[in-house]
Specification:
- The chain is of the alpha/beta class.
- Helix content is 38%, strand content 13%.
- It has a four-stranded parallel β-sheet with strand order 2-1-3-4, with helices on both faces.
- Helix 1 links the parallel strand 1 and strand 2.
- The chain binds 4-nitrophenyl phosphate.
- 4-nitrophenyl phosphate binds next to loops.
Amino acid sequence: KSMIKLLFVCLGNICRSPTAEGVMQHLLDQAGLAQQVLVDSAGTSGHHVGEAADERMRSHALERGLELTSRSRKLVAKDFQEFDYILVMDQSNFDDAAALVAEGPLRSKIHLFTDYCLSSRVSSVPDPYYGGEAGFERVLDIVEDAAKGLLAHLKTKM
Ligand code: 4NP
């Protein structure tokens, strides 16, 4: 059977979606599911293409034992053919992603990542870029919660 492919998407692909990618990969490794689920991330803006994750984000992730190694790339229409789930961090990411493909089965692959949260009552992973250190902790808290819920959902599909 074929792999389930997940693409995490935010604006710059240097804070939220690299964190989601790293957290999800860690959960999959722990669950022994790394051969069944592939993860990647991308940004709707091309502003940071080729860059490593934000230094502040990497530092906060590392405090939780998580090394973020992704390089920023831009979301492209072809990703909707390649991936099964396009997991966006907020409504603005949702709208920007949706604009890349026609309404229908491809656009239906877009999901708000926070819809999978188990305990956080939030409707987005807030952009931490222009805020303080607490924003990066908030990203990690929400992403860890949503990633656990997403993993539970995926297990029902395999
Ligand atoms: P991200 O955060 O979308 O979580 O990667 C941002 C990174 C950069 C910018 C905005 C958000 N920016 O405006 O450069």
